[in-house]
Amino acid sequence: MTNLLSNSDARRVFLAKQGLSAPPNRALTKQGLLQLIHDLGFVQVDSIQTVERAHHQILFSRNQTYRREHLKALLEKERALFEHWTHDASILPSAFFVYWKHKFRHQEKVLVERWRKWRGEGFEAAFEETYERVLRDGAMLARDVKADGHVSGGWWNWHPNKTALEYFWHTGKLAIAGRSNFQKIYDLTERVIPAEFREPEVNREDFVDWACRSALTRLGFATHGEIAAFWNLVSPDEAKAWVSAHRDELTEVLIEPATGDRARASWAFADFFSTLDSHPDAPPRIRVLSPFDPMIRDRNRTERLFGFFYRIEVFVPEAKREYGYYVFPLLEGDRLIGRIDMKADRKKSTLDVRRLWLEPGVKPSAGRLEKLEAELERVARFAGVEKVVLLEGWRG
């Protein structure tokens, strides 16, 4: 028999799995930060700093006592975290590194042909020279090996040595030892990732089992497509086969959507309903989410669970944007209630709020606006600016 999960229960479970139900002002230790990232699975890294970089904002939105220096220490000193790719560049627990070795082997097979089409013939000309230089000289930035006369042009115009560094990072021969002004510092993997995290070798069957099991644990409930997409490590067919092979450990759940559509069949572990009450309600406060927050990464799932359509418009021409270049979703309790366009002006030390859009049916009551202003004050302090400025027409 397939059980129906109400939309409110589905949101409650998912928000708890996403670390958004814990008290946001409880002191977060460095070890607690490592556990939070482990429980989330990954934290996406992005260079845009409209208010704060994505990884910092993702962690701050879950706990306002988050300290950037703890993340830096876990990444660059203790090596308990490492940077690599899921669906995008992300920070991951080093305990997962042995599973990423399967991704490295896959990348070796596909990247050369893909990048040859992108970069052109001979793109790998500097590979051997670049690797030998890292081996000999140690950790370096891409600019340290940049050929004289090359004019950089972003990711589409990497110089040959930068291409080599990125290829070796993608395929696991190099790792990110740290960052300088957000630029990657590359070094040999064995000099960055502790030996305890590089062994033992994991066979393909155990790798697929871990990838699917750990994804479903963090999602709470999911289709086989959502299981595959979580880490972007296995194919939907592999996830589907894993579900078939582990039916005795799983239960089918019908998820009631917020959109009024037909309930969607998903999978959960067999104890799902017996542990349903263990997930707390999300705090009622309003929180600003990063556009790269893992809670909204799967835009279709976000729309089904929360009735909230969201797309980042960074790459949309300005004239065609519905909202703005970098607009932040707003979470209130277990509801996505709207979005806000704002930017930190570091010269003036202000958080400039340009525009607020509330979802249909969400009223701008005095209490709600007070909660929003309290959150904007928290974000401003975190971003290192002195005050919030509500620009003319911000309420629309």
Automatic annotation (TrEMBL):
Pfam families, sorted: AlkZ-like (PF06224)
Protein name per UniProt: Winged helix-turn-helix domain-containing protein
Species whose genome carries this gene: Rhizobium lentis
